[in-house]
Amino acid sequence: MALATVRTVAELRAQVSEWRKNGLKVGLVPTMGALHEGHLALVKTALETCDRVIATIFVNPKQFGPNEDLETYPRTEAEDAAKLASVGGHLLFAPNVEEMYGADGGVTKVSVAGLGDIIEGEFRPGFFDGVATVVTKLLLQALPDEAFFGEKDYQQLNVIKRFSADLNIPVDIKGVPTVRESDGLAMSSRNAYLIREEREIAPVLYRTISEVSERFKVGGKAEALSKWASQQLIDAGFHKVDYILIRKADDIAQEAVKGEPIRVLAAAFLGKARLIDNVG
């Protein structure tokens, strides 16, 4: 079937209801658009287990801070729809802000204490409240069987899993491994902000945190490794490092313990782009 586009919750629910009547399993892939191969990998993964796959495009104002790139964030719906159709997506849900939050902008928010206010949340206050609120709405608007999110945004994935469990939202949250360029750079819509010279430097982030992971496994100290890695990035041309941290993979609020699964989390500025990445 060809990709269809709907813009209201009523239309979305009507289509999902029809699929349900036919016994079809439904998957959801929430995005902010400007789709790349990482997003399409989510759709392809969803198609492996679901009969019908919905992708959403909504640039969510509630997750942008006052000095962030809400107005300039890339918006390419026509191209995005063509990409979704090319990989077999069935439905695009592309609401406007009023459809999502109502005429008054909405007053309810979802906040995940102890997880949404650490690490990335310290540098972007309110960011995860915005993410948790809009994803809660999308899950309840579509009520899919499964929803798919990339591991590139590892803390975000953990936040979504936590509030979904806490709120008894009957959707299975699936994490999908990070998709990378051939040189290791994690695919991201914000990579478009990199000029040519910066794009050549950018893969240093992935190489550095991968080295941190290896050194930690053989006895390196977390604090010393973080300092070393930050200096590596500065020396390579990054102009600011927000954090490089080694945490427990299953609880990123906790410091990593040798011999247990870990996650190295990083965020750093290169030109106009703030790059985030992580490795296990």
UniProtKB/TrEMBL annotation:
Q: Can you tell me which residues form the catalytic site?
A: H39 (proton donor)
Q: Name one Pfam family in it.
A: Pantoate_ligase
Q: Which GO terms describe its biological process?
A: pantothenate biosynthetic process
* UniProt binding sites for (R)-pantoate: Q63, Q156
Q: Which residues form a coiled coil?
A: none
Where is it chiefly localized?
Answer: cytoplasm
Where does this protein hold ATP?
32-39, 150-153, 179, 187-190
* Locations listed in the record: Cytoplasm
Query: Looking at the UniProt record for this protein, which Gene Ontology cellular component terms does it annotate, in alphabetical order?
Result: cytosol
Named from the GO MF annotations, one term is:
ATP binding
Q: Does this entry carry the keyword Disulfide bond?
A: no
- Give the E.C. number(s): 6.3.2.1
Q: Which CDD domains does the annotation name? A: PanC
* Record-linked InterPro entries: Cyt_trans-like (IPR004821), Pantoate_ligase (IPR003721), Pantoate_ligase_C (IPR042176), Rossmann-like_a/b/a_fold (IPR014729)
**Pathway terms, separated by semicolons:** Cofactor biosynthesis; (R)-pantothenate biosynthesis; (R)-pantothenate from (R)-pantoate and beta-alanine: step 1/1
The reaction(s) this protein catalyses: (R)-pantoate + beta-alanine + ATP = (R)-pantothenate + AMP + diphosphate + H(+)
Role played? Catalyzes the condensation of pantoate with beta-alanine in an ATP-dependent reaction via a pantoyl-adenylate intermediate.
Any miscellaneous information on file?
The reaction proceeds by a bi uni uni bi ping pong mechanism.
Q: Which family does it belong to?
A: Belongs to the pantothenate synthetase family.
Oligomeric state and partners?
A: Homodimer.
Q: What is this protein called?
A: Pantothenate synthetase
Q: What is the lineage of its organism?
A: Bacteria, Pseudomonadati, Pseudomonadota, Alphaproteobacteria, Rhodospirillales
Quick one: which gene encodes this? panC
